[in-house]
């Protein structure tokens, strides 16, 4: 389903040195996961014998009973295509190895040995095991099966899945084997662990797994043994987690007395696309591997994954201050560089009482604060036209007065009427000419005033407007330096809301936030906004969602539609489709505006600057993007 695969990781209740009991339990978990439509289930290191069996590893009986139990597991697994990855001890060329076995449909498809054996403090693995770091291109015989054995194994189905395996300490080493596995094509890494609990260790471990999934651009699935393994001085908590490209999708509650299995729907299509676009991947050199074929993964019937409606907005309220300060700092420092470079202490900015110009003003104000410049150097212009309402105008004036910047009023109605006359345009025809004459009149005033004052014009257009081309070419589209061009509308609102912490402007900002978004270019009755942007081009929250998945993950429109339908219960699929259609058409046809964009600050991973992130021909066709189910 759109490149999603359900993967599980389990922390079973383990009885030390009791393989038959442990396998019984593993079989129950597999039954359950088969019903849950999981494709692969990971278990911890040495989960059949128990990791802490100590010198019992040196007794023949433990190995025999492990293999007997393993045989039972193989028999039971015959009926499903679900894969189990379990930890076993293997005897090869008269040496013992700590290994992972990959089991599917009654067969062991491959066995991967551990490379790095911890042998310090509470760990004593070299007393029993040998490192498998040099084992490549080997096969071993176990339970009458000839099984590929080595650290050179990857497992792949005919679709998106290719996985590799490492074992506990491998990840903590200088060169985790998963690095090369990823370079060789593994997009999922499984780690079977026995990692004990020490104060602070769990957060380090989670950080390690998360970071590895980000660096390797993969899914990283981890399972460490639970409390049943605790013995003498060493306590295990059962930390298991599933990460994808730096995010934790699921994790266990540690110290459970019961079996714990978690699962997540991993987006491998996204991971694969991200790799195609990661230049360091291209520069990394693959090595020889043996790729073992696995039967196709189970198809999931319904996605079970949280899809964030507002991907540009942080969902953790605790980070709000930090994120907002960071963004406005980046904006302010872009402007600081430009002002100090041209040796000017003046800017001109059109203030409408809308969200965009409000944020641009606040970011400019911050730059002036940092530079210790006189705030009067910020020349704010209100330019009422045919559609301006007293609400937006008075908010604009109050905001500027409270901040103590210079404020001027230059109406544009007469100028626009003169231009209609010169053009031979009937002022009663409220078409695109009627709208754009006003938008361009404003820009002309701002630019000319900048010349007069020795200032630059601050651009206010945001990333969502730039994506949709919702601006007037060479009107509000143009400026000398653009402050919001890297910030989508959903984030603009979030930032303006953040600034309500400043008591003196709180009430004004709240009213700006509650004003419908509008270009105010069309005349109104009784001082009420007549042109609501979102009822014309669609809700910005949807457009930002489309933009994010389209650019960040290169998602196809059909997948964007599917994800939006999952995320937004408040819109019908048909509504989403209608707005997605508009998004695609506008995104393609409006590239000519982006190709002539002024310099502007990049603040997030997504930008549409033609000099940096997005280089698309203005003449590309969109038809191939419109085939929505
Ligand atoms: N591929 C291409 N390459 C080069 N030029 C191309 C072109 N496609 C059209 N054009 C030309 O560009 C013109 C279309 O662009 P443009 O003149 O900008 O006009 P257009 O995009 O049609 O109109 C601007 C729209 O933006 C809205 N707006 C304006 C200002 C502020 C806001 C806001 O809410 O923030 C919204 C306004 O309501 C209106 O719907 C065409 O008439 C044609 O001359
Ligand atoms: N009445 C006005 N007075 C001064 N400048 C204006 C006026 N209307 C528009 N502008 C300028 O044109 C820009 C684009 O107008 P638009 O209405 O899209 O922006 P906004 O009102 O700031 O934000 P939003 O689009 O979020 O409502 C504004 O940011 C502002 O710089
Ligand atoms: N089993 C292991 O390899 C444990 C070693 C590892 N550093 C840990 O504590 O997680």
Automatic annotation (TrEMBL):
The active site is at 45 (proton acceptor), 114 (for glutaminase activity), 168 (nucleophile). Deamido-NAD(+) binds at residues 436, 465, 470-473, 593. L-glutamine binds at residues 195, 201. The keyword NAD applies. One of its GO terms (cellular component) is cytoplasm. InterPro entries: C-N_Hydrolase, C-N_Hydrolase_sf, Gln-dep_NAD_synthase, NAD+_synth_C, NAD/GMP_synthase, NAD_synthase, Rossmann-like_a/b/a_fold. It is an enzyme of class 6 (ligase). Pfam families: CN_hydrolase (PF00795), NAD_synthase (PF02540). Pathway: Cofactor biosynthesis; NAD(+) biosynthesis; NAD(+) from deamido-NAD(+) (L-Gln route): step 1/1. Catalyzes the ATP-dependent amidation of deamido-NAD to form NAD. Uses L-glutamine as a nitrogen source. PANTHER family: GLUTAMINE-DEPENDENT NAD(+) SYNTHETASE (PTHR23090:SF9), NH 3 /GLUTAMINE-DEPENDENT NAD + SYNTHETASE (PTHR23090). NCBIfam families: nadE, PRK02628.1. This is Glutamine-dependent NAD(+) synthetase. It comes from Halarcobacter anaerophilus.
